[in-house]
């Protein structure tokens, strides 16, 4: 595989593909909520509709990024992880995983995976890692975990005899039950070396008032135009972590996950309505 920009790697199989800008996409809608400019009218309209039903959605997006920051800092620092596989990475928003990890450990290896060609295009242009480390970008879909696990770029970038942190941040709730998200996670985790970690965040209705749940439910119905979305309760989210060793404080609202770390959360569990956890493979 070709090496460019001192440790910066691109997916050799990437091709610029046409996409439909008239349909909202989760990564571009998320970019809009975070104040980014890499989105289209459909994404903004969808984002505004969701914000009308759940007014603190922008706060939730910001707190999810803070959660990711704390997680990667823990993994690169306290846990000593040097390899990160970020699936469903979304439009680049600083600080990104490699920026956090490579400040702590410059030789860290980071691979970003997303199914949106716009995400990959921006990643290739903007995400340049440290000279000591490696940074790669792969267009693939979490619904097809076999393609991810066997992808030539990922087989090259990572040392598969050493622990890898699998990051599934705010992505699993875009997979319906028919997509078999639990099977996808299980397949990905089973391919990781012992001592690896799984970190995830997942939207839930558990923490929301009934009126908000009613409004959001109407938006995620088939034909509403906002795409697939499946909020899950605590038990269902916990099942993604079966057989793994939970890191304190376990599965919790993202604002309650190691809140003493920087960047500290500044919202409530109800304002975010997202569970988060980090777990180690024995």
The number of E-state strands comes to 8
CATH architectural designation: 3-Layer(aba) Sandwich
Give the CATH superfamily: Vaccinia Virus protein VP39
The largest pleated sheet is described as: 8 strands, mixed
* End-to-end distance: 32 Å
Secondary structure tally, helices:
11
Radius of gyration: 18 Å
Shape: globular
Give the SSE order as H and E letters.
HHHEHEHEHHEHEHHEEHE
CATH class type: Alpha Beta
Beta-strand percentage range: 5-15%
Structural class: alpha/beta
Q: How many domains is the backbone divided into?
A: 1
Q: Within the CATH hierarchy, at the fold level, what is the topology?
A: Rossmann fold
- What is the residue-averaged pLDDT? 89
The percentage helix is 25-40%
Runs in which pLDDT lies below 50 for 5 or more consecutive residues are 1-17
Tell me what you see in this structure.
The structure is a single chain. It is globular, with a radius of gyration of 18 Å. It has one domain: Rossmann fold, CATH 3.40.50. Helices cover 35% and strands 14% of the residues. Helix 8 links the parallel strand 4 and strand 5. It is an alpha/beta fold and 282 residues long.
Topology:
Blueprint: H1 26-33, H2 41-53, H3 57-76, E1 83-87, H4 97-104, E2 109-114, H5 117-126, E3 134-139, H6 145-149, H7 152-157, E4 165-169, H8 181-190, E5 197-203, H9 210-219, H10 234-238, E6 245-246, E7 252-253, H11 269-272, E8 274-280
Parallel strand pairs: 1-2, 1-4, 2-3, 4-5
Antiparallel strand pairs: 5-8, 6-8, 7-8
